[in-house]
Amino acid sequence: MDFELTKEQKSIQKIAQLFGERIVEPLAAEIDREKKFSWYIFHAMQRHGMVGVSFPELYGGSGGDELSRVLVIEEMAKHCASTAVTLSVAQIAPNCILTYGTEEQKRFFVPPLLSGEDLSAFALTEPNAGSDASSLLTSAKQDGDYFILNGTKSFITGGALSRFIIVFARTGGPRKISAFIVEKGASGLSYGKPEEKLGINGSETVEVILKDCSVPKENMLGERDKGFNIAMTALDSGRIGIAAQSLGIAERVLQESVKYMRSRVQFGKPIGMQQGLSWYLSEMKARVEASRNLIYKAAWLKQKGLPFTMDAAIAKLYASETANFCAHKAVQIHGGYGFLKDFVLERFYRDAKVLEIYEGTSEINKLVIARSLLGPF
User: Quick check: helix, strand or coil at residue 182?
Assistant: First the structure.
């Protein structure tokens, strides 16, 4: 197995690293404090080819691979979790359209997303259908050349900011769910107020409300009643993105801890010389490197066209728990300073928690892994 990045991947990684340090880092604290999405950063990411890094050049992408996408998200997360998750989610809808859409849908909807002009959203979760997505209640009934959608979607990243939302709605009995591209300004489409959250405050999260929302039938994505498969495939890819976000956060808090333990002096010597605290670093580093290998393997499987559902779940489960472990230990290492908003540890500590929740909770990822092992009974 070759663990060496290609020349192209190293170049993309370096661009993302410099971008994160020079563009994202100076704005990250303000983004969190003001709780506003940064179009400035998003447009700048586009100009540097990061939004469409893993998409074909034919549709406005940079022609890179899945590991390149992971490397970019990882670097963004070292500075701003909100920027990292926005980038990851912004890639879900175009990926769905390129995989399941018609050629007309691909050419009309995808290029503006990859160019950074617009955002898109993915609306599966509902107030009473989270982990059990197949129980969603949003309905779509055909009326001539249109489908009429009714229902409410919750926890939708970038919903009110997006040019369109991929909405999943029931078109029949159990698991007969279809996917629809609902464009901004559609009749009957509205949004709730932005949610107040513990972390990732620069990433907008809203309810999406569909009340007799009229959608042209040509905006159905993929086959009728086959939308559940689209949703599950999208979540597999999304889990790799969130795992990369988790890795970036874990790496950053580890870096901060190393610096602090070398400079902070107590009892006449740097605290890094205290065995108990230095072992914290050892545990953090071991988990970071294990997470990296799991994530890069899942990305490699995806770009090779091989099954990656279980590997994506493993990577997301382990990396998200690693980010929380490392953030917790980093705050502990920094003592009272880790609890202050003047230090970045406090922000990363808050941002890390949601990693164990969105794109499949840790419990759901364990279920995915177990079912992959056991198969059908």
Answer: strand
Query: Of 250, 234, 274, 275, nearest to 351 (Cα)?
Result: 250
Helix (H, G, I), strand (E, B), or coil: what is residue 40?
A: helix
Q: Is the pTM value of this prediction over 0.85?
A: yes
Strand partners, 256: none
How far is it, in rounded angstroms, from Cα 373 to Cα 90?
31
Burial of 151 (0-12, 13-18, 19+ CB in 10 A): buried
Q: Are strands 139-143 and 146-157 parallel, antiparallel or unpaired?
A: antiparallel
pLDDT for 175: 83
What's the CA gap between 70 and 242, in Å, rounded?
Answer: 9
CA distance 353 to 85: 13
Which residue in the list 321, 346, 356, 359 is annotated as catalytic?
Answer: 359
* Strand 205-216 to 189-191 pairing: antiparallel
Reply yes or no on whether 359 is catalytic: yes
* 280, pLDDT greater than 90: yes
Residue 101 has pLDDT above 90, yes or no: yes
Is 80 exceeded by the pLDDT of residue 306? yes
Domains of the chain: 7-114 (1.10.540.10), 120-225 (2.40.110.10), 229-374 (1.20.140.10)
The closest of 2, 103, 14 to 50, measured between CA atoms, is 14
Residue 347 has pLDDT above 80, yes or no: yes
Tokens representing 198? 């513990």
Q: Is 184 helix (H, G, I), strand (E, B) or coil?
A: coil
DSSP state, 23? I
pLDDT tens digits for 142-181? 999 999 999 999 999 999 999 999 999 999 988 899 999 9
